[in-house]
Amino acid sequence: MDREGSAFTNHGGIIQFQGQDYLFYHNGAVPGGGGFTRSVCVEALFYNEDGTIQQVQMSRSGPAQIRSLDPYIQHEAETISWSQGIETEVSGEGTLNIWSINNDDYIKVQGVEFGAGAASFSARVASALNGGSIELRLDALTGQLVGTCIVPGTGGWQTYVTVSCDITNASGLHDLYFVFKGEGSMDLFNFNWWCWKAFPKRTLVYKIGCKGD
């Protein structure tokens, strides 16, 4: 890697995962990034026959996704492939949470497999002000809207409640966008974790017997 990506340095380190070597580094590519406001990136490493490392090029997409993400288990809100505006902090519930959420900020989660279809979405949220909403969109910031979850004021930035909303037409493999909406110039709410629920599987019951029994 022969450049620093507008962040003075790139501080690379190599990690092997499932038999593939990856180079983790940082740059200033995220909106608002620069010399001291840097973001973690990753690229796959490949080797020449003599054992030397092939030159790594910085990219916005990174390596191919290893497997799709299961939305039907609980995920931290900082599960992110791309974002705008938001920051992380230590949560009063013992993990991390997303904060500094303002109108039109967003989080992208790549390669989410909804299977036969999602029925509902739940989010763990808190707001010392009036809250806002989370738009759930597929494949683009302005993509198909499959649900909107309302976030109320909860009385404190670490006073969390779980909110839920119904989902329509979310099935198959998609990139998922959390698009945050609200009024005013102040932070809207904090976001700790999320989880989707699938439609229950249908069980067919067959009655054995003769017609007319």
UniProtKB/TrEMBL annotation:
One Pfam family this sequence matches: CBM_6
Residue ranges annotated for the CBM6 domain, each copy included: 73-197
Tagged with keyword Signal: yes
Signal peptide as annotated in the record: none
Alphabetical keyword list: Carbohydrate metabolism, Signal
Keyword set includes Signal: yes
One GO MF term attached to the UniProt entry: carbohydrate binding
The protein's name: CBM6 domain-containing protein
